[in-house]
């Protein structure tokens, strides 16, 4: 399959089940809502080293938030519900409770419950107050600035983690330009996050290593500087590869996001140095979700 001079390789991204939740973070200004959201979702690129994967899903206008203030929706994913139940209140307590003018609300209903105020109320040291608003329990926790308002808990969803595309280009600059275009387009597809810096991964990994204790190591088949050292997946003209990893609330969300990213790269085309689009997988033996690039682009 060739689109605008770009080869869509006959490959698939292999993804895994994850458990996730959505939170709505608000503040007096959009600036401070985003600061709290980005702080809370920091150091959350991969479950391998960070314990979770998280990111900003979208900005939420004031007319759509529970308290009528500017907001940001964030998604947080973990490998199991036990991990998510531990990670979410810790991150809210350290990064949202502490952020000026912030509040935190549930962004999803149903599934296993995840504590927000149920866990954080104890910071109020007995001065906290519970209220019922429209049938939902919220907490008002006194702080030096005023008070922190949050829902009692949020719900959870069965999500998908590890969708991906690989962008093969003739130079590092062209690979980055294409990856930036893809990340911008993919960030507009609801229900997904791109958890790596700016949505882009320069250091894609494979499972395992020759060193004991390493769960992942550099994906040498896609490293241009190792082309002459052994097996390579790169044609001679490719000098740089960028990856985009996708976590989503459903299989369809990840598929739609994948297509948006490929379309953005293809729009640049071979004239902008893009040679091919590929995907990372493990032979189909580990993850139950297989996002076949050519089927997605039919």
TrEMBL record:
Keyword list, A-Z: Acyltransferase, Cytoplasm, One-carbon metabolism, Transferase
GO biological process, one term: one-carbon metabolic process
GO cellular component, one term: cytoplasm
Domain spans labelled Formylmethanofuran: tetrahydromethanopterin formyltransferase Ftr N-terminal: 1-143
UniProt-annotated location(s): Cytoplasm
Reactions the enzyme catalyzes: N-formylmethanofuran + 5,6,7,8-tetrahydromethanopterin + H(+) = N(5)-formyl-5,6,7,8-tetrahydromethanopterin + methanofuran
Pathway field: One-carbon metabolism; formaldehyde degradation; formate from formaldehyde (H(4)MPT route): step 4/5
Primary location recorded for the protein, binned into one broad class: cytoplasm
GO molecular function: formylmethanofuran-tetrahydromethanopterin N-formyltransferase activity
Entry's family note: Belongs to the FTR family.
Name of the featured protein: Formylmethanofuran--tetrahydromethanopterin formyltransferase
Organism: Chenggangzhangella methanolivorans
Lineage per the UniProt record: Bacteria, Pseudomonadati, Pseudomonadota, Alphaproteobacteria, Hyphomicrobiales
